[in-house]
Every structure is written in structure tokens, then in C-alpha cells.
């Protein structure tokens, strides 16, 4: 297994063994497993991460910044491309070439599918895809896998109900592809009509469950999932009134689910989860976001060949 110098563009570029190795490395950064107070500051001291955020972000951007600094890296970059020379007409590729010259790792989020791949094609240094439009979000998937593994101690023989917009939701695309690598999993993509999973992301473990979202609780009761993975209905990809696609889970939803079923969400949530569910012990979306830090510390250390 070789991680040094590697790009993280598509979840399918990683084998099951490689994914498990990344998750195992993340444990070294997780206070749930590491009791020593030893700092990780010397791991990548002197290295620079460039964060190029062409699209808004809270968790992904801030957790990458935090992870980079926790392992001693400096950070440069932008989250407002209008404040760069792209405003003057500089191309995406030239912008990447320039940032490549100033950093050791590029972390990129961009509204267009395959933009991270385009960046990797011109960059010499590792490129980490922090979300390329409606395509994929592989580092989110790694933290999702980590969260599932931490909860159940396994990544196989699980039933996952993904709820919301399967069509445009990059975290569901990559999670479905990742779960297919492990044996005996079944993914149910619960969505309103018109927002089903695109064919290229459907594995043979995936099943579309197209419903009127007002029937969500009954549908979940029939599926009996181990994990509910909820997601936003992203209005940036949709035209007109999205109210017919929206749904809301609440404390009441838990009555329809198996006792052990956990509720995940990559966040941000809008109305999909009533805050009255937040204190339920099986609502783990905030812990999930925290896990993103450990995964990103691990990934940066691995692609820099420092761990
Ligand atoms: C997700 C994303 O950006 O794809 N958020 C995240 O990175 N945690 C989900 C979303 O935008 O709804």
C-alpha cells in the first residue's frame, strides 16, 4: 500500500484494504482511542496545505484547516475565487499550477464535476477532492465509514437507508460506492420521484425506494435499517419550489426504527432533522463531523508520507 504522493479524487481509486488502513490511521488522531496528550505537531511541520474553495463550506474547509495545523502544517489558499486573479480571467489550470508551486498538498472544492481530477492532471503535488459539484466527496465518505466502524465495529452486513436527494448528493454517491466494497451491505436510496440515484452510482447492492416523503416513517419501519443517512435537498442544483421534495425526521421517527439504528447526516441540515432529535443517543451527526478532523489528519499525514 502506497499513500505518499497520492491524490484523493474518487472513492473508487481506493481498495477495501486501503480504506481500512486510512480508518486505522485516523484512530491515531482520535482521543477516543489515544489517551496520551502527545502533540502531533511535528508530523508535517514545515509543509504547506493550500485550500482552494470555489464553493462555500463550513465543516470540510475548517476541519481541513484544523487538521493541517494540528499536524504542524502551514495553510494558504482562498475561499473567494473572486479575490484571486481568476477575477482577471486567469484559467482554473493556471491557478492550480501557481498554487502547486507554493504548497505541498492541494485541497480543492469546486462546483463542477471532475474539477478535482482536472486539478490533479496539472498539479505535481497530491490533490484532495473536498467535493466536486454533484459528483463525489471522498473524504466525507471516509469519515462516514469511520463513524460507522466506530459505532458497529464492522463495515459489512449493514442496511443503510440514505434519505433525500440521491441524484445530486455527492456524499451519498460516494458512500454507496464505498459500502459496495464490503460484503453483505444493502443500500436503500429513499427519495422523492425525480431525485433517484444516477445510473453510474448504482451498485448491485443499491435499491431505489421512490416514495412520497410524507410516508418516510412507514418506509423506514419496513426497511429496518442499521443506519439512516439523511441529507439536504440541495437547492443549488434544483429549479423552482423544492417544498414537495422536503421531509423532516424528528424524535418521533425513532419509534419506527430498530433500537440500535443510528442517524447520520453530513450536515448542514436545513429542515431534514428537527433539533428535538439532537439529544437522542443514536443521533450521531455532530460526532460524525468531529470524526472528520481525525480522518483529515490521517489523510494529510499519509499523502505526505509522514506516518
Ligand atoms: C456536504 C457537502 O458539501 O457535500 N457537506 C459536507 O461537506 N459536510 C453536504 C451538503 O452540502 O449538504
Protein described:
Helices cover 31% and strands 15% of the residues. The protein is of the alpha/beta class and 307 residues long. It has two domains: 140 residues, Aspartate/ornithine carbamoyltransferase (Rossmann fold, 3-Layer(aba) Sandwich); 151 residues, 3-Layer(aba) Sandwich (Rossmann fold), CATH 3.40.50. Helix 6 links the parallel strand 5 and strand 6. The mean pLDDT is 97. The chain binds N-carbamoyl-L-aspartate (NCD). N-carbamoyl-L-aspartate binds next to helix 2 and helix 6. The site of N-carbamoyl-L-aspartate (NCD) has 13 residues, from helix 2 and helix 6.
Q: Can you lay out the helices and strands and say which pair or pack?
A:
Layout lengths: L15 H12 L20 E6 L5 H12 L3 E5 L13 H11 L2 E6 L4 H8 L4 E6 L5 H15 L6 E5 L6 H10 L6 E6 L14 E5 L5 H8 L3 E4 L31 E3 L20 H19 L4
Parallel strand pairs: 1-2, 1-3, 3-4, 5-6, 5-8, 6-7, 8-9
Q: Give the overall shape.
A: globular
Number of domains: 2
What CATH architecture label of the largest domain applies? 3-Layer(aba) Sandwich
Radius of gyration: 19 Å
* CATH class (first level) name of the largest domain: Alpha Beta
The H-level CATH homologous superfamily of the largest domain, spelled out, is Aspartate/ornithine carbamoyltransferase
* H/E element order: HEHEHEHEHEHEEHEEH
Secondary-structure class: alpha/beta
Count the strands?
Answer: 9
Oligomeric status: single chain
Number of helices: 8
Distance between the termini: 13 Å
Amino acid at each position: 500500500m502506497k499513500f505518499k504522493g497520492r491524490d484523493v479524487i474518487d472513492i473508487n481509486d481506493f481498495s477495501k484494504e486501503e480504506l481500512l488502513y486510512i480508518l486505522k490511521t485516523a484512530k491515531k488522531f482520535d482521543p477516543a482511542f489515544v489517551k496520551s496528550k502527545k502533540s502531533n505537531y511535528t508530523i508535517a511541520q514545515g509543509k504547506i496545505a493550500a485550500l482552494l474553495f470555489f464553493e462555500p463550506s463550513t465543516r470540510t474547509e475548517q476541519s481541513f484547516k484544523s487538521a493541517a495545523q494540528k499536524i504542524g502544517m502551514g495553510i494558504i489558499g482562498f475561499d473567494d475565487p473572486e479575490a484571486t486573479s481568476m477575477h482577471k480571467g486567469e484559467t482554473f489550470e493556471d491557478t492550480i499550477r501557481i498554487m502547486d508551486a507554493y504548497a505541498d498538498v492541494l485541497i480543492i472544492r469546486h462546483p463542477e464535476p471532475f474539477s478535482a481530477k482536472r486539478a490533479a492532471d496539472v498539479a505535481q503535488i497530491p490533490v484532495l477532492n473536498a467535493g466536486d459539484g454533484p459528483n463525489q466527496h471522498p473524504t466525507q465518505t471516509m469519515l462516514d465509514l469511520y463513524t460507522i466502524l466506530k459505532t458497529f465495529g464492522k463495515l459489512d452486513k449493514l442496511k443503510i437507508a440514505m434519505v433525500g436527494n440521491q441524484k445530486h448528493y455527492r456524499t451519498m454517491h460516494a458512500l454507496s460506492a464505498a459500502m459496495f466494497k464490503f460484503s453483505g451491505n444493502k443500500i436503500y436510496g429513499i427519495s422523492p420521484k425525480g431525485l433517484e440515484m444516477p445510473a453510474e452510482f448504482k451498485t448491485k447492492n443499491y435499491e431505489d425506494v421512490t416514495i412520497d416523503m410524507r410516508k418516510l416513517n412507514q418506509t423506514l419501519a419496513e426497511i429496518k435499517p442499521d443506519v439512516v443517512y439523511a441529507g439536504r435537498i440541495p437547492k443549488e442544483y434544483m429549479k423552482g419550489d423544492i417544498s414537495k421534495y422536503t421531509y423532516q425526521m424528528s424524535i418521533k421517527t425513532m419509534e419506527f426504527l430498530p433500537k440500535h439504528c443510528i442517524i447520520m447526516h453530513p450536515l448542514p441540515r436545513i429542515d431534514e432533522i428537527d433539533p428535538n432529535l439532537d439529544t437522542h443517543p443514536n443521533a450521531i451527526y455532530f460526532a460524525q463531523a468531529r470524526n472528520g478532523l481525525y480522518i483529515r489528519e490521517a489523510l494529510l499525514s499519509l499523502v505526505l508520507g509522514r506516518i
